[in-house]
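Students often ask why we bother predicting the structure of a whole assembly rather than each chain alone. The short answer is interfaces. A chain on its own may look different once its partners are present, and contacts between molecules only exist in the joint model. In this exercise we take two input lines together and write out one structure for the complete complex. Read the inputs first and try to guess which parts will touch.
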Amino acid sequence: MIEGELDNLYQDIILDHSKNPRNSGYLEGATHSARENNPLCGDRVSVYLTVHNAEITDLKFEARGCAISVASASMMGQMVKGKSITEAQKLFKQFIELINGSDVGDGFELKELESLSGVKQFPTRIKCATLSWHALQRALESGGIQAKA
Amino acid sequence: MIMTALHKSGFPINDIRSDFPILSEKIYGKPLVYLDNGASAQKPIQVIKAISGVYEARYANVHRGVHYLSQVATDDMEAAREKVRGFINARSEREVIFVRGATEGINLVASSWGRANLTVGDEIILSQMEHHSNIVPWQLIADITGAIIKVIPINDAGELEIEVFQNLLSEKTKMVAITHVSNALGTIVPLEQVIKKSHDAGALVLVDGCQAAPHLQVDVQELDADFYVFSGHKIYGPSGIGVLYGKESLLESMPPYQGGGEMIDTVSFSGSTWADLPFKFEAGTPNIADAIGIGNAIDYVSALGLTSIMEHEEALLSYATEKLKAINSIRIIGNASKKAAIISFVMGDIHPHDIGTILDRQGVAVRTGHHCAQPVMERYDISATVRASFALYNTFEEIDSLASSLSKVKEIFG
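Now the answer. The structure tokens for the assembled complex follow.
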């Protein structure tokens, strides 16, 4: 049972994303960015976005964190790229519902993100899974920076 | 559980363990292996019963009532102060101030002593391995007074760079605030040297003794420390209580930290006068029951004797060091020649949080993260470590459990 929960938390797909994160790095020419820290552990993630006509055309992130936080950021990038700001915010809400173990509202197919639902059995790790998402949310709320001339 | 012959004969490990009720708890169905003592130690039944005993039969407010229970509570609390005095060998109980914890003790000194004594360009020296609680209070007072903070670096092993320290000292140095034992690395700081050099330069020394008080014999007179702070909860006592020791002449010269009841002599709207030490620094109704509890914790530790405790913990440390070194991917952070029973380590590129979660599910409680010592993490260019910190009730078998739980980490992360 206990072992099962651990295996469910550290599924192969999560380990794969944490070891080979997609869209990792600094994004030149980003229009939006935000950094989130977890002061409890010192983990941090920066999310960089390029937004054109309210659509997230590119996303990269730099993360220093555990397997859960890196995998979550990696999956987030794949899911969010190409979506509109409104769609990304809906996805954010669905993801938070998934992680908190509440009913996930209608919206997108969560696909690989479903694999992170095991985190709900580990309350001390929820912040790890949501760190990059909060950075995304803040980057979007920041309204973006003036594009360089 | 039958303990092996590794335990030094005469050290009553089985009796000790049965004194700590929480040690028989099961965590996720597995026996608790509690190796997070550096964060907070568990409590023996003697302390637990003493605290409930206060509330059951001996409680009232202190230092004010004429009634019987007020006198009993006052006597018990002052008896605890006397136990603390003896424990650290202060000259007088007037030098023992009860505070919420070491953090409050440091804030008290930084604020009260700092406001009265620091001015623009004065220097405060800290070490690179301080806990945030011995950094931030000094930054706050430096901002107010214009004082400057200098930092003693540590070498790769986690030892203080004494020569650099010597060069940092000058007539501008007013305060050296330094840990006795590093909570993140386990390093035991050569305090005699540090204090001698500081005093030679005309500076005062505040020692953060949180990680030392449970493990080492502390003698504030022999050390010649000007201030020494520690927390009750790390020496098997209650949380929410701690001790600030200060030399009487210094405490006398310092203005009050907080105002209120208990700390006054007379109050009028034309001005107030302060109570004598130690009460000048104990505004408001104190944490009575926990102050008494810290006395019982000291009784517990003293009955075993710090010498036997040190021997036991040193044996645990060397056994654990050997066990962890045998695991290929593990790198121990902090290899000072003199260490308390704390081991910080990293394991390949597996994040300490993931390790902590996997150990937890096997009943093994360790600390993971930066240990409120981010400058230490920066020094070693890491974001976090796993820390196993040992106490008088830990066993060699528990270290075996730690090692075997770490193999589960390898299994998951490959």
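Check your guess against this: The longest helix of chain A spans residues 85-100.
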